[in-house]
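Practice problem: predict the structure.
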Amino acid sequence: MNNVKGFSLIELLISSAVGLLAIGIVGSVFLSGHNAANKRSLELMLQQDVNDALRTIKEDIVRAGYISGGGTTLRLYLPGGVSKADNVVYVNATKDCLAYTYQDKNGVQNYYSVYYKNENKVVYKKISSAIDTTTACSINNANSLIYEKSIKVTGFNIISEVVSSSSATGQYITIELTAEVKNNPSISTEKVTKVKVRNWQ
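Answer:
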């Protein structure tokens, strides 16, 4: 009778253990790579959203006060419409709000508000009817500048600075925006931008 050769139980157990160990190592490398890629994509989404929001605000601030034909700079009115606000861009630091008005390419005057809401978002609204400095920071049905389903705004600070010289007066707006990913607060960002208001008269 011929001897039948094969694997012993011990050899089978050892080979199974080595196989499971190899699968575990490959799996952990794959998972760590997947987690790193997922974190990176969330970081990029956050950075892009915050940068886009700040760029939108910055481009609008540069247009603030513009009037076709080069007349007197457009500004928001004070309560009651008695006189105009001191600055081209009205800033209410207490309410984390800024507002302004300008004429579009068709010569239509529009009004804009950007402000921070308690629901952890920065909102923006274009309004066709006139607003003054009291109503500018309490506009309803404004749209979020940040993708609010995934991103939480944790801070929105506005600093207005008027700079005067013997020949001219200007206004600088500094905006600080901090945000984080809602389901992963460890992924956060803080951006600061400074804008010079062009249409000052």
